[in-house]
Amino acid sequence: MENLLLANQVAIITGASSGIGKAIAIELAKNGASVVINYNSSRERALDTLHEVKAEGGKGIIVKADVSKEKDILRMFDKTLETFGRLDIMVANTGIQVDSPFLQMSTDSWQKVIDTNLTGQFICAREAAKIFVKQVPDPEKTEKSIGKIICMSSVHDMIPWAGHVNYAASKGGILMFMKSIAQELAPLKIRVNAISPGAIQTPINKSVWSDPAKMDTLLELIPYRRIGKPEDVAKAAAWIVSDNADYITGETLYIDGGMMLYPEFADNG
Ligand code: NAD
């Protein structure tokens, strides 16, 4: 493990009991990081992730925390330090959808999505950065990044999404949140980047990929003509938190098979 890309590093991944978060936890572990697998509801699925991490020769723990609750998040950080004694990587991955037409959207479903997707990332990033700074008292004397943060966003940080305005607003918020903290934390040698997936086959969009007609419509929006896999995102995540990407901060990596390329204009518009 010593010569792996992320050897001796510790990472927290929120929402790692399924989908993209699970794939990232496994990929970071494959690259030598010890992983904190956060989950909110299914202990069993979190244990599945841990099992796969261990099968790759990696180390990890599972920690239950609802990222819309500050005290849960603080407990997750305490547990991380108690177990591994340090933190190097924060992957703020959790995101939910509570969809409805705008005119019928309740304040509760607005707030639940903002609390989970946006405020949760704010608290996780802030607590991670506090730890990074304590670990390296004088970051100006260090060459490489002392801590890395990934904010999981979406192509809907740019593409408006009727019927999902709470989700799109949360992801649009993440864009400026990420860039602003990247600007503030760069002198401290903390790198902050976002990953914005297009359509990745996970439980969040099962209603689309499990229906062949909806899948055909979706593929028209993807110039690369396939749905993404969680591993497509996970491999990029492992790279962006590694020293191979050391000069990259404040960027959004769109992993979308070209969904952001205005595919409706491919045939003359
Ligand atoms: P998913 O539903 O498989 O994963 C979301 C995870 O978050 C689950 O493990 C869930 O248990 C967990 N979670 C939900 N509420 C939580 C809470 N309050 N506290 C802690 N954990 C909680 O979906 P996914 O597709 O893997 O989504 C992961 C991230 O990727 C999200 O931020 C999502 O917005 C983003 N994303 C996904 C796609 C896609 O096509 N799948 C596209 C763009 C962005």
TrEMBL record:
CDD domains per UniProt: GlcDH_SDR_c (cd05358)
Alphabetic keyword roster: Oxidoreductase
InterPro entries in UniProt: NAD(P)-bd_dom_sf (IPR036291), Sc_DH/Rdtase_CS (IPR020904), SDR_fam (IPR002347)
Membrane spanning stretches: none
PANTHER family in the cross-refs: SHORT-CHAIN DEHYDROGENASE_REDUCTASE FAMILY PROTEIN, SHORT-CHAIN DEHYDROGENASES/REDUCTASES FAMILY MEMBER
Keyword Metal-binding: no
Annotated family: Belongs to the short-chain dehydrogenases/reductases (SDR) family.
SUPFAM superfamilies per record: NAD(P)-binding Rossmann-fold domains
PROSITE patterns: ADH_SHORT
Protein name: Glucose 1-dehydrogenase
A GO MF label: oxidoreductase activity, acting on the CH-OH group of donors, NAD or NADP as acceptor
The keyword Oxidoreductase appears for this protein: yes
